[in-house]
Amino acid sequence: MDNRKGALFPDEVILQILARVPVKSLFRFKSVCKTWYRLPSDNYFTTLYNQVSVKEQMLVAEVSDSSESKSSLICVDNLKGVSELSLGFLRDRVRIRVSCNGLLCCSSIPEKGVYYVCNPSTREYRKLPRSRERPVTRFYPDGEATLVSLACDLTRKNFYVVMAGYHRSFGQRPDGTFICLVFDSETNKWRKFVSVLEDCSFTHMSKNQVVFVSGRLHWLMSGLCYILALDVEHDVWRKISLPDEIRCGNGGNRVYLLEADGFLSVIQLSDGWMKIWKMRDYETEIWTVVDSISLRCIKGLVPGIFPICQTGEYVFLATHKQVLVYQRRSKLWKEMFSVKGSSSLPLWFSAHAFRSTIAPCN
User: Fold this and answer.
1) In the chain, where does DSSP find H-type helix?
2) For residues 175 and 165, what is the distance between their CA atoms, to the nearest angstrom?
3) pLDDT score for 342
4) Any residues with CB less than 8 A from the CB of 106 and at least 6 apart, and which?
5) Cα separation, 307 vs 319, whole angstroms
6) How far is residue 300's CA from residue 287's CA, in Å, rounded to a whole number?
7) InterPro entries under this entry (predicted)?
C-alpha cells in the first residue's frame, strides 16, 4: 500500500484490521480500490490473514431432519454464534469427510469415488482426478477407504489428500498390508505406497479427528496404544507415545485427539473431569497437562459428549443434539446450538473442526 498524506492509519495498521474481517467481507471490500482488490491474492497479506485466522476454531456439523429426509450444514463460531454453511457452489450432493486449515474434503453422495477439496469461505474448489489405481476399498461393503484425510499446508499453500485402507482379498481378512493413495495438489496427481501396519484399528471418532501438525497427519489408535503419524511429503509412518497415565490408566476413560494452537493435544474424559494434555516437544514426545475441567455442571450429558476442537480460550463439544462451548478463562459452559425436533444422525457424528482462511485449492 502507498502511504498517502492525510491517511488516518498507517498501511500496516489497515492490513492488520483487514486480516481480522471475515473472508466474505474481505472479498466485498475488493471494490473499494485497486489495492484492496489485490489483497486476497497478495502473498504477504494472505500469509498475515492465515496467521491470524488459525488462532480461531469453529465447528461445522450436518444437521439432519429425519422427518423431512433432508440435511443442512451449520457453522458455530465462539463469538458470532451459529450460521448456515453452503456448499451449493459444488453443484453436487456431498458429505464432508475431513477438514484442515480452512479446506474441506467432500465425497459425492450420488457418485462413489468422486471427491472435492473446497474452501467454503472463498467458494473455490477442485474436483480431484480419479486415480488409475484400483480403489483402496474395492472389497469393502461401503466402497470407501478406512481413512480419508486432508493435509493443508498454509505456509507452502498446497494440500494433500490421503486415502488408505487394508488390502483384503475377496472373502478374506485383511493381511496387514496398508495401501495409501496420496493426492498432491502441486502435481495434480496421485501416488501410491504400500506399508505393513499390523494391529491398527480405528474408531469412527479417531477417523474423523485426524490432526495435521508438524507436516504429519495423526490418528489415535483404538485401544489407546499410540498415535499413528504419516509424513505426507515423504510417505513415512511413525508411532507416537501417549501420556503414561492414558496408556496405563483407567479403561473407563475416553480419549480424543485434537489440535491445540499448532500442537498435538489429547482430551481425556472421565465421569467427573475433562483433562487436556498438550505435547510440548514433538521430537521428544513430552506431554503436559494444561487444564483440568470439572464436568459437574453437565454431568447428565457426559456419557454422550465428544470434544471436537479447541483453542487456548475455549473448547467446542457436541452431543447427539447439542453443541456446547466451554470458556476456559471464565470456566463457564454455554449451549451454542440445539437441534429442534428429531434428528436422524447425532451432531457429534458429522462434526468437524473448521477455520476460515484464504487457503487456495484450485
Assistant:
1) 11-18, 23-28, 34-38, 43-53, 204-208, 244-247, 347-350
2) 11
3) 74
4) 87, 90, 94, 95, 96, 97, 115, 116, 117, 118
5) 9
6) 30
7) F-box-assoc_dom_typ1, F-box-assoc_interact_dom, F-box-like_dom_sf, F-box_dom, Gal_Oxase/kelch_b-propeller, SCF_F-box_component
Cell, residue 283: 521430537
Q: Which sign, positive or negative, has the C-alpha torsion 150, 310, 83, 206?
A: positive
CA distance 361 to 103: 8
| E strands present in 201-345 | 211-213, 216-220, 227-231, 236-240, 254-260, 263-269, 273-281, 286-294, 306-310, 314-318, 322-327, 332-338
Q: Are strands 58-65 and 70-77 parallel, antiparallel or unpaired?
A: antiparallel
pLDDT for residue 179:
85
106, 72, 27: which is closest to 356 by C-alpha?
A: 27
Q: How far apart are CA 114 and CA 208, in angstroms?
A: 19
- Look up cell 470456566; give the residue: 331
Give 200's pLDDT tier (boundaries 50, 70, 90).
low
Decide: 164 and 193 in contact? Cβ < 8 Å.
no
Q: What gap in Å lies between CA 310 and CA 298, rounded to an integer?
A: 18
Residues paired with residue 15 on neighbouring β-strands, in sequence order? none
Name the average pLDDT for the chain: 86
Contact predicate 60/96, CB 8 Å: yes
Do residues 269 and 235 touch, judged by C-beta distance below 8 A?
no
CA dihedral defined by 122, 84, 107, 235, rounded to 10 degrees? 60
pLDDT of residue 134: 60
Confidence check: pLDDT of 141 > 50? no
Helix (H, G, I), strand (E, B) or coil at 49: helix
Terminal-residue alpha carbon distance, the chain: 27
Nearest CA to 183 out of 235, 245, 253 is that of 235
